[in-house]
Design a protein that fits this description.
Elements lengths: L1 H24 L6 H28 L2 H5 L4 H26 L10 H20 L7 H32 L3 H21 L3 H16 L3 H20 L8 H10 L9 H9 L1 H14 L7 H6 L26 H10 L10 H32 L6 H7 L15 H34 L1
Amino acid sequence: MVNIIIGIISIIISSFVLLYNRKFFKSLSNNNLLKFIEFLIYYKVFFYLLVPSVLRIFSDFQYETELGINPMELLIVYIFEVISYIIWITIFYALNKNTTKKVEQIYVFILILFIYLTIINTIKIFGLDLDFNNYFESIFYIIFPLVNTLGPVLAFFGIIYYKYDNPNNKLFLLSIFAVLFYFITVLISGVRGLIVHPLFFVIFLLHIYGKKRQIKLTFILLFGFAIFQATYMQIRHLDTDTKIEILAQGNLEKENKNIFDDIELRYGESSRMSVAFLRRGLDNNFAGLKPFLSSLYAPLPRTLFPKKPIPGSIGEDKYSMGGYLIMSDLRGQWWNMTEFLTSAHAYWEFGIIGLIIITIISVLYISLIVRFLLKIHVLGIPIILLFFKPWGYNEPKIWLYEIPLQIFQYIIPGLTIFFVLKLIYAFKKLIVKNLN
């Protein structure tokens, strides 16, 4: 009976966040970028908080019982996340309620990123050893995180945008080309979330462009994939040759759980594992500034600074990162990493005060990015997803140590590319003017 009550409370507070989200975002500017952030919060709360709460009632918290997790611990983690969302949404609304958009479409930017993505994936898949000079390798090192992460997002964006809203056959075909390369690498990786999350992104894009029939087809595809992934073999930790062999043979194992159990396990994992952060805090085992400080060394090349710390870690290796530590605490799998709720991670760093302050820092940081992206019109949607850790976390409430990483890996290279393209365009315009 107690478990049912806890489950019902979890459903109520999760539903409250959804209603709170709608109340504030409906008052904001009718801008697709802001709509996307609203949609992403709906997605995170509905699938990662509300759905697992409902399924836990029917399964009597089966997966939590296996790990020795008290449902009351899980409820506290939920309360942390709800408080964090309320703070985040409230401040975001206050900072963006008077925003306006400025149209400025830079399609060359998306074209360059697609080309880079194609080169990267070709090297990965076919093992090509391209002999670049040191100068090119240095540039490649700087822009690789930006291109490798943003490229697939822009590709999925392009197949919808250049098909329905701004028809452009060349860029549409280029987008299709990049998406095909992406799917090849994803199938070989065995990480199934890398297929599910992009499809949800496509659903949002079809929604804002009013393509209801295509939305239904995408949902059917998602449902079919959900059934498939419930039975598909776990291949993500195998070597590449073995993965390719399994995929070629179409190896499927016998179904060991139904689709609802699989959804409960997967979407409830982030809240389930976040209990370990709560326990560490209750044991006074806080991380403090260590994850953040270790991220400040990110720009230094490891070839020159081999002893630099892993970003987000509190020890000497990557296994001291929060995602690894909580997996080790609850499942004993020190070699494996898991998702987590950002509010629980903030609590692990500085306690309750950390939950509040880090949430405020997160929303201030994202709001600054949004204010800039509103000026570049349509490309703002795929670019903002870059800062939410696409295809994995998809998290608007970004955690603290990720901020310096994004500044080094995305913002500085991105702004450099942006202003270089602006400068080229200005010179081109000046030359044409002088010739005339």
